[in-house]
Amino acid sequence: MQKVNYASKNRDRISIIVPVLNEAERISSIIQQVISLNPFEYWIVDGGSDDGTLGLARKHTDRVLQASGGLPAQLNLGGERSEGDVLFFVHADSRIHEKALQSISLSLNDPRVAGGGFHLQIDSGRRVIKIISYLANLRARLLGTPLGDQGIFVRKEVFLRLKGFRSSVLLEDLDFSLRMKKHGRVVLLSEPIITSPRKWERYGLLRTTLSHLRFVIGHFIHTDPEGLKKRYASFKNRAR
């Protein structure tokens, strides 16, 4: 597929989409963080929380949506409802750099760029965690495939051409980045996006790392896709 040069705008309108599930303890801080960035608009998309997240979110904002069907459905609903020129998908346990939106706009001044992500920084002082962050950034830079915890951003027109995230694949974020590459350059911006180490702490450092590696390899070689999808769903639920 031929890559497209996209017309640049004087100021890109950026919509932030944050999928949440059982984030009652941090939903207030999530919303405050997003508002502090002063985006064009934002959406909090609940995926069926049973810990009061939805009610708490509605106390702080009216920018709340509900979606069933898992994370891809949450991301797609937020993307479809957004009216911005650029969609910025951020995990609920991530902290966004204060200059992230400016950096996104600057990167999209290049009409060859379809989207991208940020430099991953896992919020831990452990040396092995720093190595994991380094390898994740190296993979994203070499392959042009930022994952969800790196804050994926994309031009809205590209998102629509791709028909959003696919629920039928093993890794919806990796799949999305790979398909985005067919429509333009995918960049990794230097500002850090800081993510919580909670999945590594809950599921185990070695186990989480090896599981990620197994799922990424499985995505490319298509070995036992249905079995891997079930194990991936179980992993996400236990590590969340």
Alpha carbon gyration radius: 17 Å
Element-level helix/strand string = EHEHEHEEHEHEHHEHHH
Secondary-structure class = alpha/beta
Strand order of the largest sheet: 3-2-1-4-7-6-8-5
What is the count of DSSP helices, taking H or I runs of 4+ residues?
A: 10
Q: Main sheet, how many strands, which sense, barrel?
A: 8 strands, mixed
Q: Uncertain runs with pLDDT below 50, 5 residues or more?
A: none
Number of strands: 8
Cα distance spanning the termini: 36 Å
Morphology call:
globular
Would you tell me the overall average pLDDT? 87
Helical fraction equals 40-55%
Strand content: 15-25%
Explain what you see:
With about 240 residues, this protein is α/β, with parallel strands linked by helices. It is about 45% helix and about 20% strand. It is built from 10 helices and 8 strands. It has helices at about 25-35, 55-60, 70-80, 100-105, 125-145, 155-160, 170-180, 200-205, 205-220, 225-240, and strands at about 15-20, 40-45, 65, 85-90, 95, 115-120, 150-155, 185-195. It has an 8-stranded mixed beta sheet, with helices on both faces. Helix 2 links the parallel strand 2 (about 40-45) and strand 3. The longest helix is centred in the middle third of the chain and has 17 residues, at about 125-145. The radius of gyration is 17 Å and the shape is globular. The protein starts with 13 loop residues before the first strand and ends with a helix.
